[in-house]
Every structure is written in C-alpha cells, then in structure tokens.
C-alpha cells in the first residue's frame, strides 16, 4: 500500500514538473538585440560618441600630465608664488576634466541620455513582443538567459529568441 501511495505522489510531482516545463520558454535578449539592425545602428552611434568624448578627455589629461611634468622639472627654480599658481592651475584643469567626465558619462550625462533616447524604445518594444509571445504561447514564464547567470541549463527547443527577432525586425 505504501508503495502505491509513494508511486502516486511521485507520479503526480513528475506530471506537474513536466507540465510546468512545457509552460516555460527561454530568450537570449543579447542575441535578440544584436540581431535587430536599428539596435546595432543605435549602439554603434552611442559607441562612436563615447569614443569621441573619451578621446577628448584623454587629450586633456595628457596636457595636464605634460604641464605637471614640466612643473616638476622646474619646481626647484620657481619662486613659491609661481609654484602655487601652477599647482592651482593643474588642480583647476583636473577639476575641469572631472566635470567633463560627469557631463559626458555621469548618471545624467550625455551618453546615458543618448542611450536612453535611442535604445530604450527598442528594448521596450522587445519586452512588448516577449510579453505578447508569452501570452500567445501560453507560457507561464519566459526566462532571459542573458540576464540570469543562474541558468545552468536550458532546452534550446524552448528558446523563442528567433521568433522574437523575426517579429521585432518586421515591426521596427
């Protein structure tokens, strides 16, 4: 009798597990977004702008380093007032570079705002498509394997990334 009861309980759990697995799908948001031309174009534009700003900052840092090295070389021969003036100039230039870095790359900087402006609409559209496909496919859950480092295994047969890519490319 115990064997039958144990067998019944195990069978119920196995059936529930199999049913639950059929209601789960996977996507790879990184793969999806890299396959959407408008996303790639926008990301390239942001990268180019970031590289341009980084180069500008690097040039200014090089100028400050040259000024500092020149100052160090002549420091011993300069009067105290001139040393102080040059030190203040160096500090001022360093502060200006830090402000530019904040302006370009800070939380409310140009790059994050440009990223939000260009990429967020595409990401939101992807989220809508995923949600619609989830409802249409009757999935209880869609797991993004790109966002979760805790996924140790997934069945590629349940990966609906290509479906999402096809829909997004037709809508964008």
Description:
By secondary structure, the chain is mainly α. It has one domain. The protein has six helices and two strands. Helix 3 packs antiparallel against helix 4 (80-105) and helix 3 runs antiparallel to helix 5. The chain is elongated and about 80 Å long.
Layout of strands and helices, then pairs:
Elements (H helix, E strand, L loop, with lengths): L1 H21 L1 E4 L1 H6 L2 H38 L5 H26 L4 H28 L3 E4 L16 H11 L1
Parallel strand pairs: 1-2
Helix pairs in contact: 3-4, 3-5
Order of helices and strands: HEHHHHEH
Report low-confidence residues grouped into runs of 5 or more: 1-16
* Largest sheet properties: 2 strands, parallel
Oligomeric state as shown? single chain
Count of DSSP strands: 2
Question: Can I get a quick summary?
Answer:
This protein is mainly α and 172 residues long. It is built from six helices and two strands; from the N terminus they run H-E-H-H-H-H-E-H.
Spell out the key features of this protein.
172 residues; disordered N terminus; mainly alpha; two-stranded parallel ribbon
């Amino acid at each position: 009798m115990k064997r039958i009861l144990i067998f019944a309980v195990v069978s119920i759990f196995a059936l529930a597990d199999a049913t639950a697995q059929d209601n789960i799908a996977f996507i790879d948001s990184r793969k999806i977004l890299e396959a959407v031309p408008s996303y790639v174009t926008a990301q390239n534009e942001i990268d180019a702008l970031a590289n341009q700003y980084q180069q500008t900052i690097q040039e200014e840092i090089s100028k400050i380093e040259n000024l500092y090295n020149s100052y160090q070389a002549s420091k011993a021969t300069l009067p105290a007032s001139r040393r102080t003036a040059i030190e203040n100039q160096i500090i001022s230039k360093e502060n200006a570079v830090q402000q530019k870095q904040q302006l370009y790359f800070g939380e409310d900087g140009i790059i994050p705002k440009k990223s939000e402006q260009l990429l967020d609409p595409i990401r939101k559209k992807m989220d809508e498509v995923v949600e619609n496909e989830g409802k249409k496919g009757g999935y209880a859950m869609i797991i993004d394997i790109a966002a979760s480092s805790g996924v140790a295994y997934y069945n590629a047969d349940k990966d609906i990334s290509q479906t999402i890519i096809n829909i997004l490319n037709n809508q964008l």
